[in-house]
Predict the structure.
Amino acid sequence: MNLHLRIFLIIFSLFLALLVFKLINSRKLPIKYSLFWLFASSLIFLVGLIPDFINIFTSFIGFQTTSNLVIGIILGIVLIITLLLTLIISEQKKRITLLIQEVSLLKKEKKKE
Amino acid sequence: MKKTSNKILLIIPAYNEEKNILKTYSKIKEFNKNNNTSYDAIVINDGSTDNTSKICHENKIPIIDLIRNLGIGGAVQTGYKYALEKDYDIAIQFDGDGQHDVNYIKDIIKPIQEEKANIVIGSRFIKKNASTFKSTPARRMGINIISKVIWWKTRVKIYDTTSGFRASDKKVIKLFALTYPIEYPEPISSVEVINHNLKIKEVPVNMKEREGGKSSITSWKKVYYMINVILSILLMKRRVK
């Protein structure tokens, strides 16, 4: 794998990890969701540091080059995160619906008094 | 025998129905007066942007104003929650746009009063010429396909799968108050009822063409609607008690 790409991956993963830690510190990102991101950034870091570690998989899975596999891995991570987000949003939607219903019912009760 | 002391509530979901809502409510009042019945009604204003709420308040029509628009499923469920809270025996979904006829209410609550069904659907299709308004051919085809999917999945035949004219007993009120599909509510909630081993029945009713307002299912969304409904029904699990 190209040296430029390796350096880029390492810098990018460090930047990602730093951002995640900063968000945790400012309490914008709960630990629960940050674990997955930290895992993703360590994976990218490892690939940049020791490409041999994934070179074995490249031909095994059928990718032409290691860099393609790297893109594949990142795409996989993004897909999984998107699925998790859909789950979270659906749950939020349910709760918001419940809140709107209950508040509206309460308001109706209050008007009667 | 027929119990006459039932507490009956009409749930009227309304989104921008300023043209129809007063007429719909007056017809119910008039029916009560002429037939010595005491149907209560509650309008669920689904965050209308027109004068629906104002008209209801001015005319002393019982109304719950949802603080934000929820869509038909969320609005109707609010009605079921209200029915549960106020201990109603029968809750009836009744459209605010003039499609449903108050004269048929006695027919759709009869099987519940005789304890022959937990939920009764007012159907346009089960008797020949039962209804003068039977929807467009494309929509009828859609309803038919959903009907076949439900039959395949549950072995229960429902003909008018998208009818929003339905009466529920206490058990179903409780079920719907707890869990009600927010999207594509009619066919999916019917399957939900079957999956809970509750009895479903259809009776013929006449429906009119809507007097104003728009259907909640529009144009290109129809295909999307069909795919969603069919997939939901196929993936639903039977809840064994």
Remarks:
- The helical segments of chain B are 21-35, 52-58, 72-85, 105-113, 137-154, 170-178, 185-195, 221-235.
- Chain B touches chain A at residues 63-68, 70, 74, 77-78, 81-82, 85, 182 (CB under 8 Å).
- The first helix of chain B runs from residue 21 to 35.
- Chain B has a mean pLDDT of 87.
